[in-house]
Amino acid sequence: MSARDERDEKRAVGAGGFAAYETELRKTERKVAGEIDPGLRGVVVAVAVLVAMLSMVLPHTGSASGIEVLTFAPDADAERVTITSIVFVYLVAIFGIGASVLALLTRRWVLAWAALCGNAVACVAGMLAWWSRNTPGVGGVVPPSGVGIGLIVAWLAVLVLAFHWARVVWARSTYQLALEEERRKEAATRDALARSLQHRPDANPEG
User: Transmembrane ranges (predicted)?
Assistant: First the structure.
């Protein structure tokens, strides 16, 4: 094997090692880009989740608690709980508590986005649930009880959760866009360097 062949082989081995390192670096960057760092907002979110959990045992309307609305208990039937109230309680349980806890524990951006969307919908559902407790239903039937403290507390909790998850998701989205822009610039620089090396004349031609 000539000296030139040895140099080419070493260069190829070095390029392969660099490619493997670059691949591992990209995997690490993607993992970091998919995570969130709520910081102090995580404490606020955790407190809001606890408040949402507390609201489930408080009266949603009349004597029916959030858990009784969730499980279609007889007290909920007696209070003529509407579909808007049922949907709101389910959204609180699934997204206000479940998705928020998972997002905090795993720090996954996707779960934080799901928590944001679910809590945003819960904000609207809570407003409709509140309205339904003070409005006659089908046939002019008036609900026997108005809005309970549990519904109010749950609605305030999802408002706080929606706001803070929006800030967390927005911050991570901005970081991801900046990272993608940096990658595009790096790729353009590498392409330009490769083209310049291809067109550069051989400094040590054989023969």
Answer: 40-61, 81-105, 110-131, 146-166
pTM: 0.70
In a domain, 202, yes or no: no
Domain membership of residue 136 (yes or no) is yes
Rounded Cα distance, 207 and 201, in Å: 15
Distance, CA of 99 to CA of 90 (rounded, Å) = 12
What is the full DSSP assignment across 88-143?
A: HHHHIIIIIIIIHHHHHHH-BHHHHHHHHHHHHHHHHHHHHHHHHTTS--GGGPPP
Give dist(CA 102, CA 87) in Å, integer: 21
- Domain range for 164 is 38-171
**Dihedral of alpha carbons 135, 140, 143, 146, sign:** positive
Is 177 a member of any domain?
no
Q: Is residue 119 part of a domain?
A: yes
How do the pLDDT tens digits run along the chain, 207 residues long?
555 555 555 454 444 554 554 565 555 555 555 677 788 889 999 999 999 999 999 999 888 999 999 998 888 888 888 889 999 999 999 999 999 999 999 988 889 999 999 999 999 999 999 988 877 654 555 666 788 999 999 999 999 999 999 988 887 655 565 556 666 666 667 666 666 766 655 544 444
Separation between Cα atoms, residue 153 and residue 147, nearest integer Å: 11
Nearest-angstrom CA–CA distance, 100 and 93: 10
What's the distance, Cα to Cα, between the start and end of the chain in Å? 17
Backbone dihedral angles phi then psi of residue 203, each to the nearest 5 degrees: -75, -25
